Write the structure tokens for this entry.
Amino acid sequence: MAKSGKRIRAARETFAGKATLSVEDAVALIKLAASAKFDETVEISMNLGIDPRHADQMVRGVVGLPNGTGKVMRVAVFARGAKADEAKEAGADIVGAEDLMESVQGGTIDFDRCIATPDMMPVVGRLGKVLGPRNLMPNPKLGTVTMDVANAVKSAKGGEVQFKAERAGVVHAGVGKVSFDEGKLVENIRVFVGAVQRAKPAGAKGTYMKSISLSSTMGPGITVSVENAAGN
């Protein structure tokens, strides 16, 4: 705990007096301050001027980060027959139908993304109370209910990130690893911000992007310029 406290204090000292930086400067500081023994994730937090309790103000979407996330994604696919074979060939970690449903119902959820063919949704639908709270429920709007399971699996493993506004109107996501080249992190961040910007709901009034902050897994957050992050 003492070593962890020293790391956090050192990071805070590095960030002291620096506010509303450009994405480039923020990324450079985060990389400089990161000192954990593992490859920390660079995380983005966006405070949006929305109320997700209203259907016309919900923000949700998916974006492929050009440089990936650095995270190894475990993908489960609900499919039968030829589509199940396609999923396996594409690199899916778990493929099944009723057997997979029973496994999940039993508490085994050893995956980060769940994909299903449309005909499997009556089976997957029984898992709504289990997968829903974990943001794992397949959704056609996110490309996870599809007949093109091979492409969906490859996209999930290749750096695709799903995002959804929480109750307070905040969107969180991992956009890379501290070990990434600064330029690649900056590119990922701007692509992610652009995707959230394009997902602006019709019911949003006033300022949409109120604030944006970046941090590493073990480090404090640092505010970045919304205009700069959006590439304006």
Summary: Strands lie at 41-48, 60-64, 75-78, 94-96, 113-116, 160-164, 170-177, 209-216, 222-224.
